[in-house]
Specification:
This protein is an alpha+beta fold and about 140 residues long. The chain has a single domain, classed as Lipocalin (Beta Barrel), CATH 2.40.128. Helices cover about 25% and strands about 45% of the residues. The chain is built from one helix and nine strands; from the N terminus they run αβββββββββ. The protein has one helix at about 1-35; strands at about 40-45, 50-55, 60-65, 70, 75-85, 90-95, 100-110, 115-120, 130-135. The chain has an eight-stranded antiparallel barrel. The termini are far apart. The relative contact order is 0.15.
């Protein structure tokens, strides 16, 4: 009886461990599928209590490609990856500036759907900025 109990406990533990590994991979796959091959237009940004609207204006946009490349309206291009760190989905962007200097930006994914994307730009000091995008 003791061996049966031990065997059942081991099987249950293996099932939980296997599911946890699958969850992060599935989560990044879903995020990539929702982001990729779309152009996202910035509608507004919120920093602290300050909101800035770009609706109806020619504004910033970014395009995420399925092959992991990214380009934006500022002329920057490079690569991105979707990762899960400490249960937070993130987009890690690595581009080169016009001067050829490398630039890395990390965004927390607050929400992503077929037509709406909300990111929080991580900054070392100060207040994070939330960015609200739509694809049209």
């Amino acid at each position: 009886m003791k061996q049966l109990y031990t065997l059942l406990l081991a099987a249950f533990t293996l099932t939980l461990v296997a599911c946890n590994k699958e969850t992060a991979s599935t989560q990044t796959d879903v995020m990539n599928n929702l982001l990729a091959n779309k152009t996202w237009y910035l509608d507004y940004s919120v920093t602290g209590t300050s909101t800035r609207s770009y609706v109806g204006q020619s504004t910033y946009f970014v395009t995420y490609q399925k092959n992991g490349t990214i380009s934006d309206s500022d002329g920057l291009s490079g690569n991105y990856t979707v990762e899960v760190n400490n249960n937070q989905s993130q987009i890690h962007v690595q581009v080169k500036t016009a001067n050829g200097n490398p630039l890395e930006v990390i965004y927390d994914i607050i929400s992503v759907g077929n037509t709406k994307l909300v990111l929080s730009k991580q900054i070392p000091t100060g207040t994070a900025t939330r960015l609200y995008f739509t694809n049209k």
